[in-house]
Design brief:
Layout lengths: L2 E6 L2 E6 L2 E7 L9 E10 L4 E5 L6 E4 L17 E8 L8 E3 L4 E2 L3 E4 L5 E3 L6 H15 L4 E4 L8 H23 L7 E3 L3 H8 L6 E3 L7 H9 L4 E3 L5 E6 L3 E7 L9 H23 L3 E6 L6 H14 L7 E6 L5 E5 L17
Parallel strand pairs: 1-14, 11-12, 17-18
Antiparallel strand pairs: 1-2, 2-3, 4-5, 4-7, 4-13, 5-6, 7-8, 9-10, 10-12, 15-16, 16-17, 18-20, 19-20
Helix pairs in contact: 5-6
């Protein structure tokens, strides 16, 4: 697969074998991943959360209990100023989701200065490799910070891992010193750079980088136009329909004019397999998140269902956002979830689904 990370004037994009799978327009740039200074505005002990002034019209949401048992932060009090990171951007009426458990991602490791957890990416399958990487992580961190060894760490030597961890810890010290200088709530201590993040996230999978272009070319613009469509055609004549609801996204697969040759069951299987690739590409490009239900064309054979499920997993294997394929429901609908981080792609100021 040929992957390109294209960075141009006012945009950043990723293509795989010519298919657009991620796009960041400058006018829609969000701040997910940014590290900033926040001030606790209101404590909500009953909800185990606090609302935090981060310099926006809407306060951010901060859970009082972080997910990790190895988080080292102190208790939160009203009026406290502290370093926070945007974990999820604003969606609808909800403000940004904040965390004090800061993470600084690199190509080989993710450094967590407020944590002491040492772990290895789930993408590393070999148990011997996992043990070796965890030992390296424990030795490098030496109790000073937490580390997650990424998949790319299994393909490099210890010195490179050690050097990157040292660089990231140096970045943290700079961030901490900036926070000590004070400032108004919302002061950015470290900005999220989409191009840099893409390079780091896709290191293990490999890429060829196009550093600068004047703007999106005709092919990218054409694919962006498709990302605003509700119905998309499949190569064999079928189509998928993407409906964004309040609580989930529903994707319907239709046979339409497909299946002019072969048996009915074979044509259905072929259409469903084709749909997997288009669904994965569009979910990544539109940055759909939360619950996603896919209504494939009904298949009689369990072996066909297994083939479709495996194909869907393979098509999402390159997704840098955590995606879980949960399997078939009793109604024969494929259920999956995708982690929410940044906002969904919006084209020409409108929701891609015409709402």
């Amino acid at each position: 697969m040929k992957r390109l990370i294209i960075s141009g004037s006012g945009f950043c994009a990723v293509t795989e074998d010519g298919i657009l799978v991620e796009y960041f327009p400058a006018e829609q740039a969000d701040e997910c991943g940014n590290i900033l200074l926040g001030r606790v505005d209101r404590m909500m002990p009953g909800m185990k959360c606090a609302f935090v002034d981060i310099g926006r019209k809407r306060n951010g949401f901060l859970p009082l209990d972080e997910e990790s048992a190895t988080f080292t932060g102190k208790p939160v009090h009203s009026g406290d100023k502290m370093i926070m990171q945007i974990k999820k951007e604003e969606t609808g009426e909800k403000g940004v989701f904040l965390t004090r458990d800061i993470s600084l991602p690199g190509r080989f490791v993710i450094l967590m200065p407020m944590n002491r957890y040492i772990g290895v990416s789930g993408r590393v399958r070999n148990e011997e490799t996992r043990r070796a990487l965890k030992n390296i992580g424990e030795e490098i961190a030496n109790g000073k910070y937490g580390l997650i060894l990424r998949n790319a760490a299994s393909e490099t030597d210890e010195e490179e891992i050690r050097a990157e961890a040292g660089r990231l810890f140096g970045e943290w010290l700079i961030i901490r010193n900036k926070a000590l200088e004070g400032g108004s709530p919302g002061r950015i201590l470290r900005s999220f750079d989409p191009a840099s993040q893409l390079r780091e996230d896709y290191t293990a999978g490999g890429y060829e980088e196009v550093k600068e272009t004047k703007g999106p070319d005709a092919e990218i613009l054409a694919q962006l136009k498709l990302a605003a469509e509700k119905k998309l055609r499949l190569p064999g004549g079928g189509n998928i329909v993407i409906d964004r609801c309040e609580a989930m996204t529903v994707i319907d697969v239709n046979s339409a004019s497909s299946g002019t040759g072969g048996t009915k069951d074979k044509n259905i299987l072929q259409t469903n397999l084709e749909a997997c690739k288009l669904i994965a590409d569009q979910v990544r490009l539109r940055n759909l998140a939360g619950i996603i239900m896919i209504d494939f064309i009904d298949m009689k054979e369990e072996t066909d269902q297994s083939l479709v499920e495996e194909q869907l997993k393979n098509c999402f294997a390159c997704d840098r956002v955590k995606t879980v394929i949960h399997g078939w429901t009793r109604l024969g609908i494929m259920e999956m979830t995708r982690k929410r981080n940044r906002q969904e792609l919006v084209i020409d100021g409108e929701n891609p689904y015409g709402e």
